[in-house]
Design brief:
By secondary structure, the protein is α+β, with helices and mostly antiparallel strands. The protein is built from 3 helices and 6 strands. Strands 2-3-4-5-1-6 form a 6-stranded antiparallel beta sheet, with helices on one face. It is globular and about 50 Å long.
Length: about 120
């Protein structure tokens, strides 16, 4: 059996420590910033699901034609988890995944606690 070298895509899983509480409680600002990134990196949004919790934390899943971006915030712990996954169906999106993740890290002004890359 021959081995196929195709890689479905890169999936980055990030946990950040964030001192700016506003960034962890303002889901509208995160969505606005995400739309800027989607335009910049020419990604196509299929849908978005948002839930704001009573403590003002939020969880958001942005479903993309290319895959997804998801975030969960914990303002009570000054942390968030973020995952960015783009598939490589028509092109290698590895550099886009890394660039998008870096832009989110700068947006939050966060310190990386975990940064895991999974080649699917």
């Amino acid at each position: 059996m021959s081995q196929n070298n195709y890689s479905p895509g890169l999936h980055k899983l990030i946990t950040l420590q964030v001192d700016h509480l506003e960034k962890l409680t303002n889901s509208a600002s995160f969505i606005e910033f995400s739309h800027i990134l989607l335009d910049k990196y020419q990604l196509e949004k299929v849908g978005i699901s948002t839930h704001d919790f009573e403590n003002k934390s939020y969880t958001i899943a942005i479903c993309l034609k290319e895959s997804h971006i998801c975030i969960h915030t914990w303002p009570e712990f000054n942390q968030l988890t973020l995952d960015v996954y783009l598939c490589n169906y028509l092109q290698d999106n590895t550099s886009k995944v890394r660039a998008i993740a870096d832009e989110y890290i700068r947006y939050f002004g966060g310190t990386s606690l975990k940064d895991i890359e999974i080649n699917r």
